[in-house]
Amino acid sequence: MHELPLSWAFTLIEPGPVVLVTTNDGVKNNVMTISWTMVLDFTPMFAITTGAWNHSFAALRKSRECVIAIPTVDLLDRVVEIGTCSGADTDKFARFKLSALPGRVVNAPLIGECLANIECKVVDIISKHNIVVLEAVAAHIDQTRKEKRTLHAVGDGTFIVDGRRLDRRTMMASKLPEGI
Amino acid sequence: MHELPLSWAFTLIEPGPVVLVTTNDGVKNNVMTISWTMVLDFTPMFAITTGAWNHSFAALRKSRECVIAIPTVDLLDRVVEIGTCSGADTDKFARFKLSALPGRVVNAPLIGECLANIECKVVDIISKHNIVVLEAVAAHIDQTRKEKRTLHAVGDGTFIVDGRRLDRRTMMASKLPEGI
């Protein structure tokens, strides 16, 4: 994993991929599959929807840290399986043969098999709407990886794979944040 | 546009497409391009990130209504242009030849050229984080449309088009909400 400038981290979340969110409760690692994410700011700040129905939520609330990992299409079956079992009774890193790599800032692990990892601190929890507000503090990308296509959950059990990329940089120039 | 059961509306937002958000301030229609959206609940509830930097925000706050319209790849140039000019000095529906169709519940218009439209009521504005919480009250889909591929903004001026759809309905069965 190479360090990715923080100013680019929002470009990993803005396209709306399915992500894996890792936590460490002080004793063990856990990971959950999440589709409900949003960019809040280029700085970067993110929102995710989660709550007590996810076993990871207790560790997220206690440690106030997590890592958002970006899986690609080759990991689809593991992404689905991670999302359909619970850390309450499963060591998901062992079961799904995920490499827990140390982060630079947080204690939650990076996932070595993923395209990218964003280390985050919890800055707010809006309990009324189950929104967790995150600030990214470091980001990493595997530039050696050939497969870069991410997945988009439809919500009905199907997933859309990234297709063609269309370039509108010139038209968008006035709207792009500095450094992008 | 055909009525889409509300229980399916979240499947339009969960994959993370670029959307158009329409408003009506009591006098005129407006529309903005947004990539920062998130599902909050299957009921369905959504969050979008917006604020005073968008001209539409005043109408959204005043009317407490909007429509989330889902454009497809054939509309890319209009989507970019809508996002790079302002309703403060432009009648975007006229300029971009968008058909403003009446909604069933809200006064903000549906966009006839889009794949789908979700009528929404504002249920909360979390000013601290520029999050607007929306509840969908009606949804519509153009089932006659051949082009169904949506767009995912990367944030650097490029856009990813929907590719293949992979089916994991059987593996996901335990996690799908009722009626899906």
What this model shows, in words?
The structure is a homodimer of 180-residue chains. Chain A has 180 residues and is α+β, with helices and mostly antiparallel strands. Chain A has helices at 10-13, 56-63, 76-83, 92-95, 169-172, and strands at residues 2-3, 19-24, 29-34, 37-41, 45-49, 65-70, 100-101, 110-111, 116-126, 131-141, 151-153, 158-167. In chain A, strands 1, 2, 3, 4, 5, 6, 9 and 10 form an eight-stranded antiparallel β-sheet that branches. The model of chain A has no long low-confidence stretch (mean pLDDT 97). At the A-B interface, strand 4, strand 5, helix 3, strand 11 and strand 12 of A face strand 4, strand 5, helix 3, strand 11 and strand 12 of B.
Essential attributes:
homodimer; 180 residues; alpha+beta; eight-stranded antiparallel sheet; two-stranded antiparallel ribbon
